[in-house]
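S.,

As promised, the flavin-adenine dinucleotide run. Input:
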Amino acid sequence: MKAGRLLLLAVIAASVAFYFAFDLGQYLSLDYFKTQQAAIESYRVSHPGQAALAFFAIYVAVTGLSLPGAALMTLVGGAIFGLLWGTLIISFASTIGATLAFLAARFLLRDGVQRRFGDRLGAINSGIAKDGPFYLFTLRLVPIFPFFVINLLMGLTGLRTSTFYWVSQLGMLPATLVYVNAGREIGRIESLAGILSPGLLLSFALLGIFPLLARKAIAFVKARKVYAPWPRPRQFDRNLVVIGAGSAGLVSAYIAAAVKAKVTLVEKHRMGGDCLNTGCVPSKALIRTTRFLADVRRAGALGVRSANADFDFAEVMERVQRVVHTVEPHDSVERYTGLGVEVLLGEARITSPWTVEVATEQGIRTLSTRAIVVATGGRPAVPGVPGIEDVGYVTSDTVWGLRTPPRRLLVLGGGPIGCELAQCFARLGAAVTQVQRGPRLLPKEDPEISASVMERFRSEGIDLRMGHAPLHFERDGERRSLVCEHGGARVDIEFDQLLVAVGRTANVTGFGLEALGIGVTKDGTVETNDHLQTIYPNIYAAGDVAGPFQFTHTASHQAWYAAVNALFGQFRTFKADYSVIPWCTFTDPEVARVGLNEQDAKAKGIPYEVTTYGIDDLDRAIADEAAHGVVKVLTAPGKDRILGVTIVGEHAGDLIAEFILAMRHGLGLNKILGTIHIYPTLAEANKYAAGAWKRAHAPQRVLEWVGRYHAWRRG
Ligand SMILES: Cc1cc2nc3c(=O)[nH]c(=O)nc-3n(C[C@H](O)[C@H](O)[C@H](O)COP(=O)(O)OP(=O)(O)OC[C@H]3O[C@@H](n4cnc5c(N)ncnc54)[C@H](O)[C@@H]3O)c2cc1C
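Predicted complex:
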């Protein structure tokens, strides 16, 4: 380190040490000020210039050295110097102090930080170059971070010193005024009655609502900036246009119609989206049939000497379509029209923040609207493995069209969709090989949970190839194979049919978001804030296109926020609440989860205790020949507060509802234990898990004394 830097560091360190060693903080307290108020006041009257200079110098030192006490000094400044002089002195002192701290951070640390993290700071540097002043102004106006942190961090960026100075002075001025005014009012209190003086009450009210007003003002300025290039229609012929009639879009439109808004729902393909047509509904229908086949195969375990299921693959797949058709009316044009939604079948494109063009069979229609909900969902991701197009593949979109059973099915991917379909096809008689790049199936679950599913898959004859990295596909006539790398060796896997299930990609392109400059996250979903708003406050996103979850129930959960915020946001906006999100993978055994599991808790550094209850011990499960699985509960250490639950076993997706309710409403394990569960049911597993927790937390000392008491009673 250069001598200059060392010297500056030594001066700062010595000053800070001096401050703490001599406990100078005690003089920066309201109590101390109150005891000295009269003396300070008389000094200010007799020596106004010196008093102002001394205050100014102390203020600069406190802020320049990033010491605590600036907020209090601002109040005190108001009390001593009044509104005008107090504001003037503090405005300059705080800005000069902040700039000194900014320069010190820059001089001491910037080169090192940029050298070390330069590659990762690239985005921040270019953001500061482009929007630095506005960003700083926002932080000054709405102090989300303490001022001293802003001073130091800004010093590490490339922001010009002069810009930092004037933006800081301007940005801090409103808050300075509010604080100085509050200080002036506090200084005037002479008796207890003064606490209720209108001036003081108003000052406190201003202190409270200032950040809110500032936030609103910033949002207003930002919105103006983003809307500036787009001409705004004089009036709108709709309140809401919803793009996409999947789970998110249907619920958004439903809510809008229910509150009497004029809403148009646009769908380019099939009403009901993924869930109805190619997702939840067909997959669960197929799972039902294949579960029956699995039950027939284990007839012996149920005491039945022989049972045989004769089936035709095409008929099974037709039944799946029958189920889809039966559910279809729930999501149909007729139903939604009846509910008061205008439904347009066609492809939507957003042409401005307030207009949507719809290409229908009858021609192009342009709709003007106050708000838009983007609910365009996602599609199966297809990896760019060389040769994949030559061998051909089906995805969760197209697998439902198969009418001849694949003899050898290769399933690429070990997530929920890949697992559900792999097991179904294995039970339908296909020789299934499931390939996963990582070491296990269902990698979001804890290792032993994945292990129990993998054990079952293997016992059903599924060839699991974990840790296999696909290199390329080969085709020679009708012979198809995947070449993988596994443990440094080349492995060839032959197959007749490939099913790709490696995840889903959000539909974010081709309908106008790019032209509007609406960004995309690193996960490929539309960038939104906590209220599901894009950079245009009247354009929202919900469902798979918004992420971070990809479930029907989260899509409809988000839809509520998107629709309500879109229609009533001028009064109040709601943050989407993701505190208790459940899900289930409908393999056999089912894997259901809510909240944290162990690997999440470890990654987030959240302390936890684990309680497990083995379902192999449960009477009903034994009677049902379903004596396997576990209820695994994470709780806060020493408390019955539930952090998360994983259930593996039959009907796990239903059983977990009790824990979802408990977590949502803050009920602990003691409450579950104190609830009567019907005997004999699988749901008793939840109560027994709570009982296991209770036993582990029984007060041993007290029990010893109780034992002694009983012994004494026996004489
Ligand atoms: C095999 C499988 C099984 C699944 N099982 C479950 C399950 O058991 N439980 C669960 O919770 N989730 C499950 N899911 C996930 C669930 O299906 C999705 O999370 C859910 O459908 C997402 O709903 P969405 O409204 O966001 O999108 P989608 O349902 O994809 O709807 C988007 C709609 O927007 C339309 N659209 C797109 N662009 C335009 C445009 N420009 N103009 C007009 N319309 C447009 C599309 O045609 C589509 O209909 C499963 C998914 C799959 C694939």
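The mean pLDDT is 92. The chain is about 50% helix and 15% strand.

- D.
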